[in-house]
């Protein structure tokens, strides 16, 4: 399975009143949206995530404020600032993610390709690295 992290641009409908972004299933989003959740009121110094998924695609959109997202495919670790409600970060495949540096007003919205399932989580980094190795041998 190929693991990828890519930006997706969301069309902004702006007029004299302000801005609006609309997201529809199967329109510019490369997966069926089965869940939406958002993270907000995050306390200073908090770091969230610290996991990967066996089989889940997610699109992260910072709809207010800003935060830092660190992604890791088992060999490269990259940090990005999310601060634009018109840009989403698409995480597909075996990607370890950590979120921190949340501004007090940050609302991080996440669209997901499946309902919540704790058994889909990989919460141990060593196990994640092992799975990346096994995956590379099979591709
Ligand atoms: P958690 O996985 O710890 O969040 P994060 O990875 O962002 O640090 O989730 C916090 C709690 O919310 C935990 O009790 C599980 C629950 N939860 C759901 O019920 N549904 C969901 O879609 C998510 C992401 C979490």
Q: What does this protein structure show overall?
A:
- This protein is mainly beta and 139 residues long.
- It has one domain (4-10, 25-134): Jelly Rolls, CATH 2.60.120.
- It has one helix and twelve strands.
- The protein has one helix at 125-137, and strands at residues 4-9, 12-15, 18-21, 35-40, 48-53, 57-64, 67-72, 77-82, 87-92, 96-100, 107-112, 121-122.
- The strands form three sheets. A five-stranded antiparallel β-sheet has the order 1-9-6-11-4, with no helix packed on it. The chain has a five-stranded antiparallel β-sheet with strand order 8-7-10-5-12. A two-stranded antiparallel sheet has the order 2-3.
- A hairpin with a 2-residue loop joins β2 (12-15) and β3.
- The radius of gyration is 15 Å and the shape is globular.
- The protein starts with a strand and ends with a helix.
- 20% of the residues are buried.
- The mean pLDDT is 97.
- Thymidine-5'-diphosphate binds next to β4 and β5.
- Thymidine-5'-diphosphate binds at residues 35, 37, 39, 48-49, 51, 116.
């Amino acid at each position: 399975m190929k693991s990828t992290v890519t930006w997706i641009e969301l069309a902004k409908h702006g007029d004299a009143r302000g801005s609006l972004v609309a997201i529809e299933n199967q329109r510019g989003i490369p997966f069926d949206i089965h869940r939406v959740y958002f993270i907000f009121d995050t306390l200073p110094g908090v770091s969230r995530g610290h996991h990967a998924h066996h089989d889940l695609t997610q699109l992260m959109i910072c709809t207010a404020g800003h935060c830092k997202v660190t992604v890791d495919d088992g060999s490269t670790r990259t940090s990005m600032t999310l601060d634009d409600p018109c840009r989403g970060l698409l995480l597909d495949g075996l990607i370890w993610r950590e979120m921190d540096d949340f501004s007090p007003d940050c609302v991080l919205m996440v669209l997901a390709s499946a309902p919540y399932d704790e058994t889909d989580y990989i919460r141990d980094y060593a196990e994640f690295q092992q799975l990346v190795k096994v995956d590379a041998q099979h591709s």
